[in-house]
Every structure is written in structure tokens, then in C-alpha cells.
Write a structure and sequence with these properties.
alpha/beta; 2 domains; FAD/NAD(P)-binding domain; 7-stranded mixed sheet
Amino acid sequence: MNAAFDVLIIGGGPIGLACALAAKKAGLQYIIIEKGCLVNSLFNYPLYMTFFSTSERLEIGGVPFVSINPKPTRPEALEYYRRVATSHHMHVKLFEEVKTVTPNAGEYIINTDKGVYHTRNVVIATGFYDIPNLLDIPGENLPKVTHYYKDPHFYATQQVLVIGAHNSAVDAALETYRKGAQVTMVIREGEIGSRVKYWVKPDIENRIKEGSIKAYFHSSVKAIRERETDINTPEGTITIPNDFVIAMTGYQPNFSLLEKAGIRLSDDAKKHPVYNPITMETNMPHIYLAGVVCGGMDTHVWFIENSRDHADKIIAHIKDGA
């Protein structure tokens, strides 16, 4: 049976789009399957998020990204990647989720919730933003708890507990505080994370120092209830009144999809997938990884700017083997 596509790309984020651009340039028949909207992870970022990278480092396929800001914002990034996709007439199937990737007589059969596809090569560029790292504590499933932060206005005048000490948590704490929320942070470590954006880090540290934002360091949330939260601190367990919990505890790749496709993961907690860093091919022939998914639980290793070249590596290897 002849494969319908030379390349099927799972994930319509920036790196998935970069892979499609490289495939198109190489004359390969490709398709992108994305379970959400175009660049779904970026769409779900906080409304006012500012990227750490400058715009030229977020460019894909040699298409210029012009920003009016030193650091581009979420709306600018959405506009840029949408323009890239539409101006290049990219073949994208949105709101369609890949369920299984199955080898069959020299090709792969891709089953989604809407159809079946055949392809010679698979690129998995699914990122890591879809599955939150859970706290596994009582009350985590209450409606007042979220692992995704969007808009600070929602929390105006409320008592908000923010869990975490990295960029997402710091942004949530500062933005909700400035919309009139009473903010408390619970931080497992003894300080704000070292990878917090350099122009934001002094802001959160000063707000904590002056007492505008209360922070419990070396602490963890023990239990969440409708109107209050228990916190384990070095001085013992305390209970504070609380309306909402924003648990910025990080996210993880879709390991289930990788394992069902036959991709080996490391035995330790990092769950690093097996792949060749030169070609990006996994232990499964003709299945490639691109972008953040390559890092397993080390989700801070790969970004748009340092994984854009995965697209060229993958397509070059596919062309060499054609």
C-alpha cells in the first residue's frame, strides 16, 4: 500500500509548522494534525504574556517576525504564526486528536478521533502544555483550583493562592495582585526560581519583601477546601482563607502517545525519550521528535528558538532516505 503522505506531523505549534515549511520546501507531501486550534499552546498562554526571546529568535521558515516591542507578546505571536500558516497555504487539520500510531508494512497508520491516515514518516511535535503535573492532594479537583492561568481580572478582590516560583506562577501572582487580589504564594524552594524573566524577578522579590504579596518558602499545600487551604510550612501546618488556587506546578508531554507509538523512555523520573540528536529519529524507524517533547520531564531545556533547527534535521534525513 502506498502511503498517502510522505510526512505526517502531530502538533500544530511553532515547531510543527516549521517542520511543515521544511517539508513543503523539500517537495514532500505532508499534513499537520492538531488536536486544538492553530498553535494551541500559545493560545492557552496568559493573555498578557511576554516572551523571554526576541522576535527574530521565534521566526520559522525564514519568515520575518516583526514586533513593536523588544520582547513580543502573545497576541503578536499568534498573529505571526497564523500569518505563516495561511500565507503558505499549509495543510492543517485542526481540532482532531491523534489516538494511535501503528506500524504497518513499511508505513504508519495514524488513527484519530475523526479518521485514518497513512504515512511513511511521522513527526511528533506535541510540546508539553496539555497535561499538568498534579499535586495529588485532597481538594485538587475542586472548581476553585486551576492549573492554567489566563486573565487576572477574573480574580479581582479575591483571596488567591498561587503555587510555584517560576515564570507562570510569578506572572499570575503579580498580575492578580495588580488587579486587586490578595495574593499568597506557596513555594517549595527557598527563593524565587532562577529562570524567572530577568525584568520580572526584582518585581516579585520586592513585592514579597514589602509584604504586598505573602510568600511561604520551603512550604507545600497539604489540602484544599471550599473556603480555605492547609499549608505545610517550616513552622508547622497553617490554614488560610482562600477563594481560588492557581497551581502553576508545570506540565508534561503526552508520554502515553509516545509509548503507544513504541518510543522508549528513560527509566528515571525524567522520562527522556530515545532519539538520535543528529537526525531526531527515535528508536522507531521513521518516527521523529521535534521541539519541547524531546526533553521529557525536562521541559525547560527546549524552546522555540533552540529547536527550530529540528525541522531541517528531520526533513534532510527523510530526503536522504527517500
